[in-house]
Design the sequence.
C-alpha cells in the first residue's frame, strides 16, 4: 500500500515539475508540517484561485503523514479530473478504495468517472454500493428498516442521480424514478433532475408525463438546452411538428432543428416527414450543412431498399 501511495506522489510531483508549478511544492516543503486542517484550508484557497499545482502540493503533504488517506486521495482525484489527467484521477480513487472499500465519496466519484468513460458495468457496481452504504447509514439515523430513506446533506446526490440514469438505460424505469424522486426531495427545482425524470417517462412511452417534467425543468431554468431538445422530441412523437420545431429552435439554428427533426422522423420510420425536414435543412444551408445531405442520402438508400424488398415479395 505504501509503495502505491509513494508511486502516486511521485507521479504527481513529476507532473508539477513539468510546468504546473513544482516551485510551489518545494516552497511548502521548507516550512514545518502544519495540521491536516490547515493544509486543507490552504488547498481550498488555492482551488478558489484555480491554482491546482499548489492545491496538489498541500494534499501531497497530508499524504506524507497519512499515507493512503481516502479523503485526501479523493480530493487529489477531483483536481486531476479538473486538469484533464483522467488516468491519475482514476489511479487516486483506486488507491482510496484500496484503503477503504466503503468510502462513499470515492465510490461515488469513481462511478461517475466510469460512467463518463462508457463503462456502465463498473459505474453501476460502484454507484450501487455507494447508494446502499448511504441508505444503510440513513436507516440507522431514522431507525427505519424498510424502503428508501430521504436523503440528508451527507448523501451523495450525484451518485443517486447517476445510478438513476444507468437504471433507465437498463430498462429499470421504476428504480430510476425512485432515485430521481429521492434527489428531488432535496432539490425540487433542479432542471437536471426534472429532465432526467421526464426522460425516464419518455423511454417508457409516457409522453404526457415526460412533457410535464420537461416543462417544469424549463420553468426553473429556461436556458436548459436538454429539456428543450427533449420537449421537441415529445412534440415530434405526437405529430406536433410546429411545436417541435419551435422547441428545438430555442437551443439550435434553423437548419440544425430541421435536420434533427428529419433524423428523428427517419429513425421513427416516418420517411415522408423525414425527407421534408431534411430537405428544409438543406434549403436553409445548402452549402454548409453536410449532415442533412448525409441523412437525406441515407434515407433515400433505405427507401430504395424498402421498395426493392416490396418488389421481391410480389414475385
Sequence:
Amino acid at each position: 500500500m505504501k509503495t502505491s501511495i509513494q508511486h502516486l506522489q511521485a507521479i504527481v510531483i513529476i507532473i508539477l515539475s513539468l510546468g504546473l508549478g513544482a516551485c510551489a511544492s518545494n516552497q511548502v516543503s521548507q516550512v514545518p508540517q502544519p495540521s491536516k486542517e490547515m493544509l486543507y484550508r490552504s488547498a481550498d484557497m488555492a482551488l478558489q484561485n484555480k491554482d491546482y499545482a499548489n492545491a496538489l502540493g498541500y494534499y501531497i503533504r497530508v499524504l506524507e503523514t497519512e499515507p493512503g488517506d481516502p479523503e485526501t486521495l479523493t480530493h487529489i482525484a477531483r483536481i486531476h479530473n479538473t486538469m484533464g489527467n483522467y488516468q491519475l484521477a482514476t489511479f487516486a480513487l483506486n488507491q482510496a478504495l484500496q484503503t477503504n472499500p466503503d468510502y462513499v465519496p470515492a465510490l461515488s466519484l469513481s462511478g461517475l468517472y466510469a460512467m463518463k468513460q462508457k463503462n456502465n458495468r463498473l459505474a453501476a457496481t460502484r454507484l450501487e454500493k455507494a447508494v446502499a452504504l448511504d441508505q444503510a447509514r440513513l436507516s440507522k439515523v431514522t431507525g427505519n428498516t424498510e424502503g428508501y430513506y430521504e436523503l440528508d446533506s451527507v448523501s451523495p446526490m450525484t451518485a443517486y442521480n447517476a445510478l438513476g440514469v444507468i437504471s433507465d438505460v437498463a430498462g429499470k424505469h421504476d428504480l430510476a424514478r425512485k432515485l430521481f424522486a429521492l434527489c428531488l426531495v432535496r432539490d425540487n427545482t433542479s432542471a437536471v433532475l426534472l429532465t432526467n425524470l421526464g426522460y425516464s417517462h419518455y423511454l417508457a412511452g409516457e409522453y404526457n408525463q415526460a412533457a410535464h417534467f420537461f416543462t417544469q425543468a424549463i420553468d426553473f431554468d429556461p436556458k436548459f438546452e436538454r429539456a428543450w431538445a427533449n420537449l421537441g422530441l415529445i412534440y415530434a412523437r405526437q405529430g406536433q411538428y410546429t411545436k417541435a420545431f419551435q422547441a428545438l429552435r430555442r437551443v439550435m439554428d434553423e437548419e440544425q432543428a430541421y435536420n434533427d427533426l428529419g433524423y428523428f422522423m427517419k429513425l421513427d420510420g416516418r420517411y415522408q416527414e423525414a425527407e421534408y425536414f431534411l430537405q428544409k435543412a438543406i434549403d436553409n444551408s445548402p452549402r454548409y450543412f453536410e449532415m442533412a445531405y448525409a441523412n437525406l442520402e441515407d434515407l433515400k438508400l433505405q427507401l430504395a431498399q424498402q421498395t426493392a424488398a416490396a418488389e421481391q415479395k410480389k414475385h
Notes: Residues 257-315 form one domain. The CA atoms of residues 139 and 145 lie 6 Å apart. The chain has three domains: 1-92, 102-188, 257-315.
